[in-house]
Amino acid sequence: MNAETTHPVALITGGAQRIGAALAEYLHAAGYNLVIHYRHSRQPAEALVKKLNQHRANSAVCFAADLQDIAALQQLAEQALAQWKRLDALINNASAFSPTPIGSATEQDWDQLIASNMKAPFFLAQALAPTLKKYAGCIINMADIYAEKPLAQHTIYCMAKAGNVMLTKSLAVELAPAVRVNGIAPGAILWPSATDDSHALQQEKILARIPLQRTGSTSDIVRTVLFLLRDAPYITGQIFNVDGGRSLQY
Questions:
Q1: Which residues of the chain have pLDDT under 70?
Q2: How distant is the alpha carbon of residue 20 from its chain centre?
Q3: What is the pLDDT of residues 91-123, one digit of tens each?
Q4: Could you count the other beta carbons within 10 Å of the beta carbon of residue 192?
Q5: Are strands 138-142 and 89-92 parallel, antiparallel or unpaired?
C-alpha cells in the first residue's frame, strides 16, 4: 500500500494485453498511476507493471479478478482505492467476444458476455462512484458499433453491448455533475488471432466497407480515451465511434 499520490489514478479492466495494455502505457506516459486488472493474463500483467515501474517507481500495480463474481468485483474496487487513496478514471475495457448462434448458445455464454460488458462495468461504477465524485473523475466504457447494428450469430454479445451503451448514458445522468461518463466504440483495430483463409476473406470484406479503407490502430483508441479524460470537460453521455466510418456503411 502506498501513500496518497498527486498523480491521477486510473483503473483499467482487461489492461494486460492488446488495447488494454496500449491504454496503460499511454496513460502512464501522460502521468497517470495505474491499477491494471487481469483475469488469466498474470504474466503479461506483471511484465507490464514491471516495465511501467521502471519508468516511474511505484506507479503501477495489477490485480486479478473474475468479472462474473460480485465479491471479486468489490474486492477489486477496494484494492484499487487502497493503493493510492484516490481514483480519477475507471476504464471498463475488458470485454468477452464470442459467437452464440441460435440453437447452440449456453447459459455459460450468456453469463460470460453479460458479465464483462454489463455486470462488471455497472458494479465497479457503483463501488467506485463516491471516490470518482470526490476527484471529479471519469468513466469510459468500451462499446461497439454492433450495439446498434447486429452482427450475425452474435446475439448475446450485441445485446450486451447495447446494454453497455445504455449503461453509459444512464450513469452519465445519475452521476452528473461530478462524474462524466462516455463510451468508445472501436471499429477494425486489432484482428482476432486466427489467420486462416476464411478469416482473411472476412477481413477483406470488412475493409471494403470502411470509408477510410484501412484498419485503425490502438493509438486511435488511446488518444480518444485521453481526450475524454483530460480535454473534454463538457462532454458526457456520448458514444464515440472510432471506426474509420465503418458504422456509416455497415
A1: 1-3, 190-200, 250
A2: 7
A3: 999 999 999 999 999 999 999 999 999 999 999
A4: 9
A5: parallel
pTM of this structure: 0.93
Helices (H), 135-181: 155-174
Hey, what's the cell of 167? 449503461
**If phi over 0 gives left and psi between -120 and 50 gives alpha, with beta otherwise, what is residue 4?**
beta
Active-site residue 157, yes or no? yes
The cell for 41 is 493474463
The span from the CA of 177 to the CA of 143, in Å, is 22
Q: Give the residues across from 92 on adjacent strands.
A: 141
* Residue 197, burial from CB neighbour count under 10 angstroms (0-12, 13-18, 19+): exposed
Contact 35, 86 (CB under 8 A): no
User: Which one of 3.40.50.720, 3.30.450.20, 3.90.1170.20, 3.20.14.10 gives the CATH number of domain 9-244?
Assistant: 3.40.50.720
| Options 32, 135, 157, 250, the catalytic residue | 157
Nearest to 80 by CA among 125, 140, 19, 17: 125
Q: 3-state DSSP call for residue 236?
A: coil
d(CA 250, CA 244): 12
